[in-house]
Amino acid sequence: MKRQFLKFLSGVSCLLCMATCALWLRSLYGVDEAWLTYDRYLTNGRAASNAVYLTSERRFWLTILGGSFPPYNGQLVSGYHINAERSKGIPQIGYYCGPYAATPFSSVGRLATDDRGMSGWGPVRWRDYRRSDEGERFRSVTIGVSQWLVLTFLQVLTLPGFLSLCRSISNPTIPAAVVNVPLCEREP
């Protein structure tokens, strides 16, 4: 059972390695991003938003954010209210694939995430941002990991199953039922 689990884990890890390599190559020329957003009105009238973004660019980024804004007061309409009206409280899933933007003012493409102001070291970066003003409460957490670090981790997961597979190929075990079967004798 353990050997089968290791083979399964190796297979899944191998597929993830190939997907990581493909995304790494694509990140040289553009951005891939998938997201899940949930905009809605709360029972107390506040408009709230939660989102998760997975982005592949010069790093793999995971961004989790959430916030809320006070009830509509007749004058100020926030993006929270607009998004809650549009989505009608139904979670939305999206995907974007496109080039990097040439400048911040470019209408085509997206800017790569600037990690200079983030905490972290070398291949791992993170940022925890909070804002609370005029009744708005907002928080986002962003974590970035280099593609080569993800590949190294996935290869370490693949190794035990690969070694198990090599051992089973080099030392095949013959079932006892096959060993005890008498050979057919030739007739004279």
What does this protein structure show overall?
The protein is α+β, with helices and mostly antiparallel strands and 188 residues long. The protein has one domain (2-179). Helices cover 34% and strands 34% of the residues. It contains 4 helices and 7 strands. It has helices at 2-27, 79-87, 147-170, 176-179, and strands at residues 30-41, 47-56, 60-69, 92-99, 119-121, 124-133, 136-145. A 7-stranded antiparallel sheet has the order 4-1-2-3-7-6-5. A hairpin with a 2-residue loop joins strand 5 and strand 6. The chain starts with a helix and ends in a 9-residue tail after the last helix. The relative contact order is 0.19.
Q: What labels describe this entry?
A:
single chain, 188 residues, alpha+beta, 7-stranded antiparallel beta sheet, 34% helix, elongated
Summarize the structure.
34% of the residues lie in helices and 34% in strands. The chain has 188 residues and is α+β, with helices and mostly antiparallel strands.
**Broad structural category:** alpha+beta
Q: Report the sheet-strand fraction.
A: 25-35%
Enumerate how many helices there are, as a single number. 4
Shape: elongated
Task: State the share of residues found in helices, binned by percent.
Answer: 25-40%
Beta strand count: 7
Low-confidence stretches: none
Euclidean distance between termini CA atoms: 48 Å
Task: Write down the overall mean pLDDT.
Answer: 84
The SSE order reads HEEEHEEEEHH
| Sheet having the most strands | 7 strands, antiparallel
Strands in their spatial order, largest beta sheet: 4-1-2-3-7-6-5
Number of domains: 1
Rg over CA atoms, rounded to whole Å, is 26 Å
